[in-house]
Amino acid sequence: MHDDDAWIGRALNIAKRVESCAEPDTLLVTQTVLDLIDLPVYLFQEVDVFELKGDYLPRRHLYRVLSVDQGALAARPEEQMTAEDWFLKGAGIVGTDDRQLAEEMHCCEKALELRIDYPEAHNNLGVILKRSGDRITAEKHYRDAIRLWPQYPEAHYNLAILLEETARPEEAETHYRQALKWRPEYVDALLRLAGLFDAWGDRHEAEHHFRESLRLRPGFAEAHNNFGVFLESQGEVKEAESHYIQALQARPNYAEAHYNYAMLLEVRDLEEAEKHYRAAIRAMPEYAEAHNNLAVLLHEKGSFSDARSHYLTAIRIRPADAQTYQNLSLLLAAMGEDEQADRYARRAAEIIEG
Protein backbone atom coordinates (compact mmCIF):
# COMPACT_ATOMS: atom_id res chain seq x y z
CA MET A 1 0.00 0.00 0.00
CA HIS A 2 1.42 3.38 -1.03
CA ASP A 3 2.95 5.43 1.82
CA ASP A 4 2.03 2.85 4.41
CA ASP A 5 3.77 0.07 6.32
CA ALA A 6 1.00 -2.40 5.52
CA TRP A 7 1.12 -5.01 2.80
CA ILE A 8 -1.98 -6.89 1.69
CA GLY A 9 -2.76 -9.65 -0.80
CA ARG A 10 -3.57 -13.32 -1.15
CA ALA A 11 0.03 -14.29 -1.99
CA LEU A 12 1.34 -12.78 1.25
CA ASN A 13 -1.30 -14.54 3.31
CA ILE A 14 -0.32 -17.85 1.72
CA ALA A 15 3.38 -17.06 2.26
CA LYS A 16 2.76 -16.60 5.99
CA ARG A 17 1.03 -19.99 6.16
CA VAL A 18 3.87 -21.66 4.25
CA GLU A 19 6.39 -20.05 6.60
CA SER A 20 4.58 -21.53 9.61
CA CYS A 21 5.13 -25.02 8.14
CA ALA A 22 8.89 -24.56 7.66
CA GLU A 23 11.51 -25.78 10.10
CA PRO A 24 14.26 -23.33 11.14
CA ASP A 25 16.85 -22.67 8.42
CA THR A 26 14.69 -24.08 5.63
CA LEU A 27 13.03 -22.49 2.62
CA LEU A 28 9.66 -23.89 1.53
CA VAL A 29 7.82 -22.92 -1.66
CA THR A 30 4.54 -23.85 -3.30
CA GLN A 31 4.01 -25.47 -6.69
CA THR A 32 3.12 -22.02 -8.02
CA VAL A 33 6.60 -20.74 -7.21
CA LEU A 34 8.20 -23.76 -8.88
CA ASP A 35 6.19 -22.98 -12.00
CA LEU A 36 7.63 -19.45 -12.06
CA ILE A 37 11.32 -19.94 -11.25
CA ASP A 38 14.13 -21.18 -13.48
CA LEU A 39 13.96 -24.83 -12.42
CA PRO A 40 17.31 -26.10 -13.76
CA VAL A 41 19.11 -23.69 -11.46
CA TYR A 42 17.54 -24.96 -8.21
CA LEU A 43 17.78 -28.23 -6.34
CA PHE A 44 14.62 -29.01 -4.37
CA GLN A 45 12.64 -31.87 -2.86
CA GLU A 46 8.98 -32.41 -2.07
CA VAL A 47 8.26 -32.10 1.65
CA ASP A 48 4.60 -33.09 2.09
CA VAL A 49 1.03 -32.07 1.42
CA PHE A 50 -0.30 -29.43 3.83
CA GLU A 51 -3.67 -27.94 4.69
CA LEU A 52 -2.96 -24.23 5.08
CA LYS A 53 -5.34 -22.29 7.29
CA GLY A 54 -7.33 -19.73 5.29
CA ASP A 55 -6.05 -21.01 1.92
CA TYR A 56 -8.49 -21.09 -0.98
CA LEU A 57 -7.10 -24.53 -1.94
CA PRO A 58 -7.90 -27.43 0.38
CA ARG A 59 -4.34 -28.81 0.23
CA ARG A 60 -0.97 -27.76 -1.20
CA HIS A 61 2.22 -29.59 -2.06
CA LEU A 62 5.16 -27.81 -0.47
CA TYR A 63 8.75 -28.15 -1.64
CA ARG A 64 12.02 -27.42 0.11
CA VAL A 65 14.63 -25.49 -1.87
CA LEU A 66 17.94 -27.21 -1.07
CA SER A 67 20.49 -25.17 -3.01
CA VAL A 68 21.33 -23.33 -6.18
CA ASP A 69 22.90 -25.58 -8.81
CA GLN A 70 26.11 -23.69 -9.52
CA GLY A 71 27.00 -26.17 -12.25
CA ALA A 72 23.84 -25.31 -14.18
CA LEU A 73 24.60 -21.61 -13.83
CA ALA A 74 28.21 -22.05 -14.93
CA ALA A 75 27.12 -23.95 -18.03
CA ARG A 76 24.81 -21.16 -19.16
CA PRO A 77 26.31 -18.76 -21.75
CA GLU A 78 26.93 -15.34 -20.22
CA GLU A 79 24.83 -13.57 -22.84
CA GLN A 80 21.83 -15.60 -21.67
CA MET A 81 22.29 -14.84 -17.98
CA THR A 82 19.87 -12.49 -16.25
CA ALA A 83 20.64 -10.18 -13.35
CA GLU A 84 19.12 -12.79 -11.03
CA ASP A 85 21.38 -15.49 -12.52
CA TRP A 86 24.49 -13.38 -11.85
CA PHE A 87 23.29 -12.63 -8.32
CA LEU A 88 22.69 -16.31 -7.55
CA LYS A 89 26.05 -17.27 -9.03
CA GLY A 90 27.80 -14.75 -6.79
CA ALA A 91 25.81 -15.77 -3.71
CA GLY A 92 26.84 -19.40 -4.26
CA ILE A 93 30.59 -18.74 -4.21
CA VAL A 94 32.12 -20.21 -1.07
CA GLY A 95 35.36 -18.91 0.39
CA THR A 96 37.02 -15.59 1.20
CA ASP A 97 40.38 -15.66 -0.57
CA ASP A 98 41.23 -12.90 -3.05
CA ARG A 99 40.28 -14.91 -6.12
CA GLN A 100 36.86 -15.88 -4.76
CA LEU A 101 36.16 -12.34 -3.56
CA ALA A 102 37.03 -10.99 -7.01
CA GLU A 103 34.75 -13.54 -8.68
CA GLU A 104 31.88 -12.76 -6.29
CA MET A 105 32.36 -9.02 -6.88
CA HIS A 106 32.31 -9.58 -10.66
CA CYS A 107 28.98 -11.42 -10.38
CA CYS A 108 27.38 -8.62 -8.34
CA GLU A 109 28.67 -5.99 -10.75
CA LYS A 110 27.27 -7.93 -13.72
CA ALA A 111 23.91 -8.20 -11.94
CA LEU A 112 23.88 -4.43 -11.46
CA GLU A 113 24.87 -3.79 -15.06
CA LEU A 114 21.71 -5.61 -16.10
CA ARG A 115 19.53 -4.26 -13.30
CA ILE A 116 20.80 -1.16 -11.52
CA ASP A 117 17.77 -1.12 -9.19
CA TYR A 118 18.63 -4.53 -7.64
CA PRO A 119 18.80 -3.89 -3.86
CA GLU A 120 20.07 -7.36 -2.93
CA ALA A 121 22.96 -7.04 -5.37
CA HIS A 122 23.86 -3.61 -3.93
CA ASN A 123 23.81 -5.07 -0.42
CA ASN A 124 25.95 -8.07 -1.31
CA LEU A 125 28.40 -5.92 -3.23
CA GLY A 126 28.65 -3.72 -0.14
CA VAL A 127 29.54 -6.76 1.97
CA ILE A 128 32.25 -7.81 -0.50
CA LEU A 129 33.72 -4.30 -0.76
CA LYS A 130 33.84 -3.90 3.01
CA ARG A 131 35.56 -7.27 3.34
CA SER A 132 38.14 -6.16 0.78
CA GLY A 133 38.76 -2.90 2.68
CA ASP A 134 36.84 -0.40 0.53
CA ARG A 135 34.47 0.96 3.16
CA ILE A 136 33.60 4.15 1.28
CA THR A 137 32.20 2.36 -1.76
CA ALA A 138 30.65 -0.31 0.46
CA GLU A 139 28.69 2.38 2.30
CA LYS A 140 27.47 3.80 -1.01
CA HIS A 141 26.07 0.42 -2.06
CA TYR A 142 24.41 -0.18 1.32
CA ARG A 143 22.74 3.20 1.01
CA ASP A 144 21.69 2.42 -2.58
CA ALA A 145 20.10 -0.81 -1.37
CA ILE A 146 18.16 1.09 1.31
CA ARG A 147 17.15 3.83 -1.12
CA LEU A 148 15.72 1.20 -3.46
CA TRP A 149 14.14 -0.83 -0.66
CA PRO A 150 13.71 1.18 2.56
CA GLN A 151 12.29 -1.87 4.37
CA TYR A 152 15.46 -3.96 3.76
CA PRO A 153 16.56 -5.11 7.26
CA GLU A 154 19.86 -6.73 6.22
CA ALA A 155 21.03 -3.59 4.41
CA HIS A 156 20.17 -1.44 7.44
CA TYR A 157 22.04 -3.89 9.67
CA ASN A 158 25.13 -4.05 7.46
CA LEU A 159 25.24 -0.27 7.12
CA ALA A 160 24.88 0.07 10.90
CA ILE A 161 27.89 -2.17 11.52
CA LEU A 162 29.98 -0.13 9.07
CA LEU A 163 28.87 3.12 10.74
CA GLU A 164 29.70 1.74 14.18
CA GLU A 165 33.13 0.63 13.01
CA THR A 166 33.83 4.09 11.55
CA ALA A 167 33.00 5.94 14.79
CA ARG A 168 29.44 7.02 13.93
CA PRO A 169 27.51 5.24 16.69
CA GLU A 170 24.45 7.51 16.67
CA GLU A 171 23.89 6.86 12.97
CA ALA A 172 24.52 3.17 13.58
CA GLU A 173 21.81 3.12 16.25
CA THR A 174 19.33 4.62 13.77
CA HIS A 175 19.94 1.85 11.25
CA TYR A 176 19.92 -0.95 13.85
CA ARG A 177 16.51 0.36 14.89
CA GLN A 178 15.39 0.44 11.26
CA ALA A 179 16.48 -3.18 10.88
CA LEU A 180 14.39 -4.05 13.94
CA LYS A 181 11.44 -2.03 12.70
CA TRP A 182 11.23 -4.16 9.58
CA ARG A 183 12.23 -7.38 11.36
CA PRO A 184 11.28 -7.14 15.05
CA GLU A 185 12.97 -10.47 15.88
CA TYR A 186 16.30 -9.57 14.28
CA VAL A 187 18.42 -11.01 17.07
CA ASP A 188 21.81 -9.94 15.69
CA ALA A 189 20.63 -6.31 15.57
CA LEU A 190 19.40 -6.57 19.16
CA LEU A 191 22.81 -7.84 20.26
CA ARG A 192 24.68 -5.08 18.43
CA LEU A 193 22.39 -2.47 20.00
CA ALA A 194 23.07 -3.98 23.42
CA GLY A 195 26.78 -3.46 22.83
CA LEU A 196 26.21 0.16 21.80
CA PHE A 197 24.18 0.91 24.90
CA ASP A 198 26.82 -0.75 27.08
CA ALA A 199 29.53 1.43 25.49
CA TRP A 200 27.39 4.51 26.18
CA GLY A 201 26.91 3.51 29.83
CA ASP A 202 23.16 2.95 29.44
CA ARG A 203 23.09 -0.21 31.54
CA HIS A 204 19.30 -0.51 31.61
CA GLU A 205 18.90 -0.48 27.82
CA ALA A 206 21.93 -2.72 27.35
CA GLU A 207 20.57 -5.36 29.72
CA HIS A 208 17.12 -5.16 28.12
CA HIS A 209 18.54 -5.81 24.65
CA PHE A 210 20.81 -8.63 25.86
CA ARG A 211 17.88 -10.38 27.54
CA GLU A 212 15.59 -9.84 24.56
CA SER A 213 18.14 -11.36 22.17
CA LEU A 214 18.40 -14.43 24.42
CA ARG A 215 14.64 -14.69 24.81
CA LEU A 216 14.32 -14.87 21.04
CA ARG A 217 17.33 -17.16 20.54
CA PRO A 218 18.14 -19.02 23.79
CA GLY A 219 21.09 -20.86 22.27
CA PHE A 220 22.84 -17.74 20.93
CA ALA A 221 26.41 -18.33 22.08
CA GLU A 222 27.68 -14.84 21.26
CA ALA A 223 24.84 -13.22 23.19
CA HIS A 224 25.52 -15.41 26.23
CA ASN A 225 29.23 -14.53 26.11
CA ASN A 226 28.69 -10.80 25.66
CA PHE A 227 26.00 -10.70 28.33
CA GLY A 228 28.39 -12.56 30.64
CA VAL A 229 31.03 -9.84 30.13
CA PHE A 230 28.39 -7.18 30.79
CA LEU A 231 27.12 -8.87 33.97
CA GLU A 232 30.65 -9.42 35.27
CA SER A 233 31.35 -5.70 34.82
CA GLN A 234 28.24 -5.04 36.95
CA GLY A 235 29.46 -7.35 39.72
CA GLU A 236 26.92 -10.07 38.88
CA VAL A 237 29.58 -12.79 38.88
CA LYS A 238 27.32 -15.79 39.50
CA GLU A 239 24.94 -14.94 36.64
CA ALA A 240 27.89 -14.04 34.39
CA GLU A 241 29.38 -17.50 35.01
CA SER A 242 26.04 -19.09 34.08
CA HIS A 243 26.07 -17.30 30.72
CA TYR A 244 29.69 -18.24 29.97
CA ILE A 245 28.77 -21.87 30.62
CA GLN A 246 25.72 -21.60 28.35
CA ALA A 247 27.84 -20.01 25.62
CA LEU A 248 30.24 -22.96 25.79
CA GLN A 249 27.42 -25.48 25.83
CA ALA A 250 26.10 -23.93 22.63
CA ARG A 251 29.56 -23.63 21.04
CA PRO A 252 32.22 -25.76 22.79
CA ASN A 253 35.08 -24.32 20.70
CA TYR A 254 34.16 -20.69 21.37
CA ALA A 255 37.60 -19.20 22.08
CA GLU A 256 36.41 -15.84 23.48
CA ALA A 257 34.00 -17.52 25.90
CA HIS A 258 36.76 -19.83 27.17
CA TYR A 259 39.01 -16.80 27.63
CA ASN A 260 36.40 -14.72 29.46
CA TYR A 261 35.41 -17.63 31.69
CA ALA A 262 39.08 -18.29 32.46
CA MET A 263 39.55 -14.69 33.64
CA LEU A 264 36.50 -15.03 35.90
CA LEU A 265 37.81 -18.32 37.33
CA GLU A 266 41.28 -16.95 38.12
CA VAL A 267 40.07 -15.47 41.42
CA ARG A 268 39.01 -18.85 42.81
CA ASP A 269 40.21 -21.83 40.71
CA LEU A 270 43.52 -21.51 38.91
CA GLU A 271 43.45 -25.08 37.60
CA GLU A 272 40.10 -24.56 35.89
CA ALA A 273 41.22 -21.17 34.61
CA GLU A 274 44.29 -22.80 33.05
CA LYS A 275 42.09 -25.41 31.35
CA HIS A 276 39.94 -22.72 29.77
CA TYR A 277 42.92 -20.64 28.61
CA ARG A 278 44.31 -23.76 26.95
CA ALA A 279 40.91 -24.49 25.40
CA ALA A 280 40.80 -20.94 24.01
CA ILE A 281 44.24 -21.44 22.45
CA ARG A 282 43.26 -24.80 20.95
CA ALA A 283 40.24 -23.14 19.36
CA MET A 284 42.23 -20.07 18.22
CA PRO A 285 46.00 -20.76 18.16
CA GLU A 286 46.84 -17.11 17.33
CA TYR A 287 44.93 -15.74 20.36
CA ALA A 288 47.60 -13.41 21.77
CA GLU A 289 45.67 -12.36 24.90
CA ALA A 290 45.05 -15.99 25.86
CA HIS A 291 48.74 -16.85 25.42
CA ASN A 292 49.76 -13.87 27.56
CA ASN A 293 47.27 -14.57 30.35
CA LEU A 294 48.13 -18.26 30.42
CA ALA A 295 51.81 -17.32 30.59
CA VAL A 296 51.14 -15.06 33.59
CA LEU A 297 49.23 -17.84 35.34
CA LEU A 298 51.99 -20.38 34.66
CA HIS A 299 54.62 -17.84 35.73
CA GLU A 300 52.89 -17.38 39.08
CA LYS A 301 52.59 -21.12 39.71
CA GLY A 302 56.27 -21.68 38.89
CA SER A 303 55.97 -23.39 35.48
CA PHE A 304 58.64 -21.11 34.05
CA SER A 305 59.53 -22.98 30.86
CA ASP A 306 55.91 -23.32 29.75
CA ALA A 307 55.26 -19.68 30.68
CA ARG A 308 58.21 -18.50 28.56
CA SER A 309 56.88 -20.42 25.57
CA HIS A 310 53.49 -18.67 25.79
CA TYR A 311 55.04 -15.23 26.36
CA LEU A 312 57.15 -15.70 23.22
CA THR A 313 54.11 -16.82 21.23
CA ALA A 314 52.18 -13.76 22.40
CA ILE A 315 55.08 -11.51 21.34
CA ARG A 316 55.26 -13.17 17.92
CA ILE A 317 51.55 -12.54 17.36
CA ARG A 318 51.48 -9.09 18.94
CA PRO A 319 55.03 -7.67 18.76
CA ALA A 320 54.16 -4.15 19.93
CA ASP A 321 52.71 -5.06 23.35
CA ALA A 322 55.07 -3.63 25.96
CA GLN A 323 53.40 -5.42 28.88
CA THR A 324 54.22 -8.87 27.49
CA TYR A 325 57.88 -7.88 27.08
CA GLN A 326 57.92 -6.66 30.69
CA ASN A 327 56.31 -9.88 31.92
CA LEU A 328 58.83 -11.99 30.01
CA SER A 329 61.69 -9.88 31.39
CA LEU A 330 60.54 -10.58 34.95
CA LEU A 331 60.25 -14.29 34.20
CA LEU A 332 63.75 -14.48 32.71
CA ALA A 333 65.16 -12.63 35.71
CA ALA A 334 63.54 -15.20 38.01
CA MET A 335 65.14 -17.95 35.88
CA GLY A 336 68.58 -16.31 36.27
CA GLU A 337 68.85 -15.26 32.62
CA ASP A 338 69.72 -11.65 33.41
CA GLU A 339 71.13 -10.69 30.00
CA GLN A 340 67.99 -11.82 28.20
CA ALA A 341 65.83 -10.21 30.87
CA ASP A 342 67.55 -6.85 30.33
CA ARG A 343 67.07 -7.15 26.55
CA TYR A 344 63.31 -7.64 26.85
CA ALA A 345 63.05 -4.88 29.47
CA ARG A 346 64.79 -2.45 27.09
CA ARG A 347 62.43 -3.46 24.29
CA ALA A 348 59.42 -2.78 26.53
CA ALA A 349 60.80 0.66 27.36
CA GLU A 350 61.36 1.43 23.65
CA ILE A 351 57.72 0.58 22.86
CA ILE A 352 56.43 2.71 25.73
CA GLU A 353 58.59 5.67 24.69
CA GLY A 354 57.26 5.37 21.15
UniProtKB/TrEMBL annotation:
Name of the protein in question: Uncharacterized protein
Record Gene3D superfamilies: Nucleotide cyclase, Tetratricopeptide repeat domain
UniProt TPR repeat ranges: 119-152, 153-186, 187-220, 221-254, 288-321
Keyword list, A-Z: Plasmid, TPR repeat
InterPro entries: Nucleotide_cyclase, TMTC_O-mannosyl-trnsfr, TPR-like_helical_dom_sf, TPR_rpt
Source species: Rhizobium leguminosarum
Pfam families (alphabetical): TPR_12, TPR_16
